[in-house]
Design a protein that fits this description.
Length: about 270
């Protein structure tokens, strides 16, 4: 039987880590990634998991994730190392029957714990599972420089950020039609940041944490990476535009709104007023 290391979802997880590291979004142990594994993906490998570990409290209760399995990066582990040594840098965790505790069933072979942002990942998986009828499975947190830079110069307001980023590339309102949510600075890994992010993720797929990074949700690895990439590229263009003395012309709210029909997306009209 083949090793779980060669499973398609494990390889795709490692590829995202590698691609995101190569983009410069994951210095040192910066950022984290989680994937809600499909039953059929895990089934062939159940004999390679170990179910004798202790359940530990998550810190939040995620009832609709009970008995689910997640692949997650380890706390303090580097995205840079995931592809070459996945078994020591990531873990598969199982959520218990109550949705309030987890245990490691595979990975982190030389010790460690899941990302310190686990409560935020799981509470947001819970909401996205419900809101997308199970479609969304990936949550990614990165530290992309241009988006972080903008949190020092733009007002920390979801509408302002969404409009500015939408205007930077015509594809942006199509890729993130609900806009981005923006949160002020908060302590990473805290219950507070988890709950505030959860409020915003009900509406948006992208949340910007001021002076820290970006939190994205998507259906699969490509879509989630692509979303992070699009947001960060738009931010890079805006940084360049501001460095060149600011906009002299741009897309109007009507221009942005006119993309909804042809591209069959529901652009957030609250942000077009
Ligand atoms: P972890 O190493 O615990 O995943 O933390 C990295 C991070 O980016 C926290 O926000
Ligand atoms: Zn972070």
């Amino acid at each position: 039987m083949s090793s779980i290391i060669d499973a398609g979802f494990v390889k795709a997880f490692a590829k995202l880590c590698d691609d995101a590291y190569n983009k410069g979004w994951h210095e040192r142990n910066g950022g984290n990634l989680s994937y809600r594994i499909k039953d059929e993906e895990l089934k062939p490998y159940l004999s390679q998991l170990s179910f004798d570990g202790e359940f530990k409290p998550i810190g939040v209760t995620v009832e609709n994730l009970k008995n689910e399995f997640f692949l997650v990066t380890g706390s303090g582990k580097y995205f840079q190392n995931v592809k070459a040594d996945i078994e020591n840098n990531v873990a598969i965790i199982e959520i218990d029957e109550s949705g309030s505790a987890y245990r490691i069933v595979w990975g982190l072979a030389s010790g460690g714990v899941p990302t310190s942002e686990l409560p935020t990942h799981l509470i947001n998986h819970s909401i996205k599972k419900e809101k997308t009828n199970g479609l969304h499975r990936v949550i990614m947190h990165s530290h992309p420089a241009n988006t972080i830079a903008l949190t020092f110069v733009l007002p920390l307001d979801s509408k302002v950020f969404s409009r500015e980023l939408w205007e930077m590339m015509t594809e942006c309102p199509i890729v993130f039609p609900r806009g981005v949510g923006v949160l002020p600075w908060m302590v990473p890994g805290s219950a507070d940041i988890a709950l505030k992010t959860a409020e915003l993720i009900k509406v948006h797929d992208v949340i910007i944490w001021a002076h820290h990074g970006v939190f994205c949700s998507g259906a699969d690895f490509d879509e989630t990476f692509g979303l992070m990439h699009t947001v960060e590229k738009a931010a890079e263009i805006l940084v360049k535009v501001l460095s060149c003395g600011g906009k002299r012309q741009t897309m109007s709210a009507d221009d942005i709104g006119s993309l909804s029909g042809p591209y069959k997306v529901n652009i957030n009209t609250d942000f077009l007023k």
